[in-house]
Amino acid sequence: MDVRIDRPELPEGYGLPTTDEDLIAWADVERRLEAATEFWMATTRPGGRPHVIPRWGVWLDGRFWYDGSPQTRHVRNLAANPACTMHLESGTEVVIIDGESSPSEPVTGELGIRLSERFVAKYGGQGYTPGPDAWAGDGAGGLCMFRPHKALAWFSFPQDVTRFRFTS
Fold first, then answer.
1. CB-CB neighbours of 24 under 10 Å
2. What is the domain range of residue 67?
3. Residue 136 belongs to domain with CATH number
4. Whole-angstrom Cα distance, residue 147 to residue 98?
5. Under 8 Å CB-to-CB from 97, ≥6 apart: which residues?
6. Looking at the domain assignment, is residue 168 inside a domain?
7. What tens digit of pLDDT does each residue of 68-79 get?
8. What is the pLDDT of residues 89-142, one digit of tens each?
9. What is the tally of structural domains in the chain?
10. Whole-angstrom Cα distance, residue 97 to residue 146?
C-alpha cells in the first residue's frame, strides 16, 4: 500500500500552516491504530440515514479487521454500500479514515494466527479469545475487512493536520 501525504484544504481562518514542516508520518498514525482498542464506524442505512457503532478490531497489514455478523445493522448497511468511515475515540488526537468494508474471505494459516494473536492480546481480558481458525469457514465467521482510501489525522490542530491518500 502506497501512502501520499499532504495538507488537506480547510476553510479560511483555521490557521492551517503553509509549509509541510509538521506533517504526521503514517507510521505514527499506524501505531495508534495498532494500539487502539475501540474504534467508531459510520455506515449509511439503505434510506440514507447514518449509523454509527463502536467496534473492536485489529489494524494489521494496512487493513482493519473486525467481527460483524451478517445480521447486524452495520454489516447489512455495508452489503448495500461498502463506503464507511472509521474514527478513533479521541476528539483532540484525531484519526479519521474513509474507506470500504466488506466481509472477509475465509482466513487460515499465518494470517489466521496473526489475527488471533492480536485479538487475544487486545481483548482476551474481556473474554474474547478467537483461535487461528475462527475465520476459516464459509462467511469467514463474521470477519470483516476495512480498506482505507484516505485519512485525516492531527495531534495538535491545526499545526500538524495531515491528509493521507492510499493506493494499492
1. 21
2. 2-162
3. 2.30.110.10
4. 8
5. 64, 85, 86, 87, 146, 148, 150, 151
6. no
7. 888 999 999 999
8. 999 999 999 999 999 988 999 999 999 999 999 999 999 999 999 998 765 568
9. 1
10. 10
